[in-house]
Inverse folding.
């Protein structure tokens, strides 16, 4: 019997897309032992924005979260999303830092590392791939990920060539990451058939979102066209800017006569567990109902779910939600000016923030962010198409963009040592150092809070004695 397996995303991308990654570990610890027996291909639970959110908003050590996940999901493949040379931050890091991060990720419990570059510049994922292979256990899977988007320069043939390159590089699986949910059913059919012809029996995975309403139809065509794994979310955290529902796809596959490997009773139990959690965040305003709807206009704007929920949160904080439609309409214009980059982290944040700035300031590119300037300088890699001359002239003047990996211009071996020294006695582990390298301000605050909490607990213990 044919088999299509499912990756469960509720612990990472589903809540990232619906509620800006504000789901604390304590909310779902009680269901992990059941999830471990559900029969998922993998459980996506780390990486992406979870690292930032743990430190910045939730007061959690992301490494401790990972260790707890490993402890409570001993039989499951734990999956993370890694932004290639960006790791989990918003800039490029040197090769030795990338290698150390991956070593620590595998050491602390990660099995599947899904690696992508926002520009599909594969020079920026090679170091991460090599490190994954270097520190791999018998369970480790290196998954090469393509950021799917639509533009005049992104064609089916182009994507097929990318997949061939990922296979040649040595990845174990390939994932098509349709972060905006814009892939149509017949695009999926042509793309997946073409890719499967090119890569043979290598595992092919589809990640999409329900943002535009296309996802269920697209996944149906993907299944008919030979996809091996699909990303889904437990149904109460599905839909809207999230993924299609796990249970729905389980029953659909059953109708097809296709084996999924899932335990029906357990996946329904998982959904029942998360229902009151979802309602709690709707009631307190952290899960905005706007994220739960279908927005066909996203087929025009090409906006991924996580980007949309973050833009809603940011405009709400600035009391500027009345500018939402204008900012949304500005996004494709900024994207075209920047050479049609796929709207995936960190480029989605960069494009989104610049679009909001253009609208709020009232003049396009009067203020250009540091990140956009670095992008134009070539520090993120090669754009898919030429950048608008107006932007190039504003940022570079008579200068030229770099045409090599920016990491090749840096000296190796200094960043980790400097970070350890900067932390001083706050540092207890290599994991603390790595957190600081990715998010220095947030990590210092977290480590100071951790130290103060432990000192207070010690005082209470002495007083009780």
């Amino acid at each position: 019997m044919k088999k299509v397996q499912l990756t469960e995303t509720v612990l990472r991308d589903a809540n990232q897309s619906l509620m800006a990654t504000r789901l604390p570990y304590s909310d779902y610890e009680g269901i992990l032992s059941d999830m471990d027996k559900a029969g998922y291909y993998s459980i996506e639970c780390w990486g992406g924005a979870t690292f930032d959110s743990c430190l910045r908003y939730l007061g959690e050590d992301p490494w401790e979260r990972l260790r707890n996940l490993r402890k409570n999901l001993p039989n499951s493949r734990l999956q993370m999303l890694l932004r290639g040379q960006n790791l989990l931050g918003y800039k490029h890091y040197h090769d030795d830092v990338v290698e150390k991060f991956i070593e620590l990720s595998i050491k602390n419990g990660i099995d599947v590392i899904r690696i992508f570059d926002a520009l599909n510049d594969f020079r920026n994922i090679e170091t991460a791939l090599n490190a994954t292979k270097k520190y791999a256990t018998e369970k480790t899977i290196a998954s090469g990920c393509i950021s799917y988007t639509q533009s005049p320069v992104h064609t089916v043939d182009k994507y097929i060539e990318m997949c061939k390159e990922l296979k040649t590089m040595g990845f174990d699986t390939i994932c098509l990451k349709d972060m905006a949910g814009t892939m149509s059913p017949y695009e999926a059919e042509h793309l997946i058939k073409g890719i499967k012809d090119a890569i043979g029996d290598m595992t092919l995975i589809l990640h999409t979102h329900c943002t535009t309403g296309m996802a269920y139809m697209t996944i149906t065509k993907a299944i008919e066209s030979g996809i091996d794994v699909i990303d889904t979310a437990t149904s109460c955290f599905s839909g809207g800017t999230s993924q299609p529902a796990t249970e729905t796809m389980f029953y659909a596959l059953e109708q097809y006569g296709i084996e999924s490997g899932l335990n029906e009773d357990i996946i329904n139990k998982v959904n029942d567990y998360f229902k009151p959690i979802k309602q709690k965040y709707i009631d307190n305003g952290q899960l905005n109902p706007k994220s739960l709807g279908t927005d066909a206009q996203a087929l025009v704007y090409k906006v991924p779910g996580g980007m949309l929920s973050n833009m809603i949160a940011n405009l709400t904080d600035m009391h500027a939600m009345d500018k939402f439609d204008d900012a949304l309409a500005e996004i494709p214009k900024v994207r075209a000016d920047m050479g049609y980059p796929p709207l995936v982290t960190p480029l989605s944040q960069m494009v989104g923030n610049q679009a909001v700035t253009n609208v709020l300031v009232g003049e396009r590119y009067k203020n250009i962010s540091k990140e956009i300037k670095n992008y134009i300088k070539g520090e993120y890699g090669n754009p898919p198409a030429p950048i608008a001359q107006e932007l190039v002239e504003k940022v570079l003047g008579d200068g030229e963009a770099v045409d090599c990996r920016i990491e090749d211009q840096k000296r190796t071996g200094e960043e980790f040592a400097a970070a350890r020294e900067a932390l001083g006695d706050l540092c207890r582990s290599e994991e603390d150092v790595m957190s600081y390298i990715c998010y220095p301000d947030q990590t210092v605050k977290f480590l100071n809070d951790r130290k103060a909490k432990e000192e207070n607990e010690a005082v209470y213990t002495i007083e009780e004695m």
Observations:
- The first helix runs from residue 10 to 19.
- Residues 76 and 322 are 44 Å apart (CA to CA).
- The chain has three domains: 5-289, 300-407, 416-456.
